Model the fold of this input.
Amino acid sequence: MANINHPLTELYLRNHDLLQGKDVVFAGDIDSMQVLHLAKGCKSAVFIIDNYAIACQCAAALGKTLNHEINQSVTVGFISVIFAPLTLAAEKITKFSCLTLFLSKAKQKSAEILRSLAPKLEQESLILIAGSNDGGGKSADGLLKECGEPYKVDTARKCTLFAVKPASPFSPLKACPDICYENLQLKQKYGVFSQGRVDEGTSLLLKNLPQNLNGLKALDLGCGCGIIGLYLAKKGANVTFSDISAEALFLAELNAKENDLKESCEFKASFMLDDAPGFDVIATNPPFHEGIKKAEKVTLEMIKEAPNHLNKGGALYLVGNSFLNYGPTLEEAFEKVTVIESNKRFSVFKASN
Done:
């Protein structure tokens, strides 16, 4: 077997007897293609993956490719990889006997996954949930108590694994409340940025975007719920919404429909600027998906590439925490860099050539 250095995959492999011979659905915060090793010995293995980059890697390992659509799947033999929002992914699932969950950073997201997929479980089934101890893994059994009597299976690599044999259904999860920004009505979902509010950085960015964008091409990079792109569309732009998350793209598209802006919007699964054509405006509040150091590295690489994705006269509008040192990299990549507005927490940059 190839060298495994993914803690949660290692933990599940230590207890792989629980998966043997079963129809297993893997879901949650799957952030490594090494999870495919868990398919060995399963009767069938379905991986629901929200992260486009990881889904592409898993598909490639099976000899398949994914396009940039929000809802798609590939199957090779007894293994399937689904890149789709939870609602659409659940529609692709038939009865199965074991739900294997990777704890999400937002526990309410894990609760939503349980409620969406548990009804598809056969009788005498099993639910497993594992997470890093510093990410809530030690208390993940709390998510399972409503449906049965969870028990600790194992701990390793600073992660904890719990299991439960479901005896009763989960109660409905309280919906995430909608928010409003100016004239935009925005539906929200657990785990999609920025849940339940317009965060301060995004608000500062929106205040400093151009007001007349009629006929221009704009990119909302890392769109989350879609607020930046919808604001640009309101100002007349034709907007591409790009995100690594199927859930985010699905929500952004829903919000475009809710605000009657769908005609000027398109939605594209992508990792940063991969396969992004020329734009007049790129607007982004770079996300911190994997911690500050990793997110900053990814953002700096994006800044270096951004000039290649802008039309003549186009500009990058970027907001970031003031302690992040984006300025020097922007000045290396662009001829003109301006700090439009800043406060103690955030700075908004405009960069152009």
Summary: The chain has a mean pLDDT of 95. The first strand starts at residue 23 and ends at 28. The chain has nine helices and 17 strands. The chain has two domains: 7-164, 179-352.
